[in-house]
């Protein structure tokens, strides 16, 4: 029983460390983007996409054609985290899934801790560990995927929104996106002050 508890605590610590590492990496990317803009090293395009919807390949294709047509634009992609409690609920389900799988594999009766009689479905899980763990894993993954599936493909250039799939309902065609990028770059050149005047 203490072995399962120590494994659970170790797993929880690992999850916290990985989450903190992702937060630090995201902050480093933001700092790097701000530094590049401040040094005039080019433009930064951010594309936030729904990873669970399979838009990673679409992002890679768009990043390639944008870099080919506009070499001065750095394209940064990341998963679009859904708003609200969906992301936190998904992480909670993931943690619960792992804890239940560890309890099933170690044969721990969690209902004994709660001073409740062991239900028949838990007895079945302990007798059929492989099937129970696989069923729990795939069912929880399906629920997690539905919670974090946003359908997003959000594009911004220098923090100026260019396209939102959440608003339009579709991903832009490449010529359409090129026209929007050209207009935005031309508009940003007109807005930049001219520092070549004589003082």
TrEMBL record:
Superkingdom: Eukaryota
GO MF annotation: an example: thioredoxin-disulfide reductase (NADPH) activity
Record keyword DNA repair present: no
Pfam families: Rdx (PF10262)
Ranges annotated as spanning the membrane: 92-114
Leader sequence segment: 1-26
Biological process (GO), any one: cell redox homeostasis
Assigned keywords, A-Z: Membrane, Redox-active center, Signal, Transmembrane, Transmembrane helix
Protein name, UniProt field: SelT-like protein
InterPro entries noted in UniProt: Selenoprotein_Rdx-typ, Selenoprotein_T, Thioredoxin-like_sf
GO cellular component: endoplasmic reticulum membrane
């Amino acid at each position: 029983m203490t072995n399962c508890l120590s494994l659970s605590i170790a797993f929880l610590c690992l999850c916290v460390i990985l989450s903190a590492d992702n937060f630090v990496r995201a902050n480093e990317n933001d700092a790097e983007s701000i530094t590049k803009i401040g040094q005039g090293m080019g433009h930064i395009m951010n594309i936030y996409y729904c990873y669970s919807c399979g838009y990673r390949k679409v992002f890679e294709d768009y990043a390639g054609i944008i870099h080919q047509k506009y070499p001065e634009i750095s394209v940064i992609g990341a998963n679009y985290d859904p708003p609200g409690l969906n992301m936190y609920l998904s992480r909670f389900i993931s943690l619960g899934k792992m804890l239940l799988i560890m309890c099933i594999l170690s044969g721990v009766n969690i209902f004994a801790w709660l001073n409740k009689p062991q239900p028949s479905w838990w007895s079945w899980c302990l007798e059929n560990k492989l099937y129970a763990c696989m069923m729990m894993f795939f069912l929880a993954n399906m629920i997690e995927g539905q919670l974090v599936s946003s359908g997003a493909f959000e594009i911004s250039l220098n923090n100026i929104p260019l396209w939102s799939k959440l608003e339009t309902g579709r991903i832009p065609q490449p010529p359409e996106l090129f026209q929007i990028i050209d207009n935005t770059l031309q508009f940003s050149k007109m807005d930049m002050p001219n520092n070549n005047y004589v003082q």
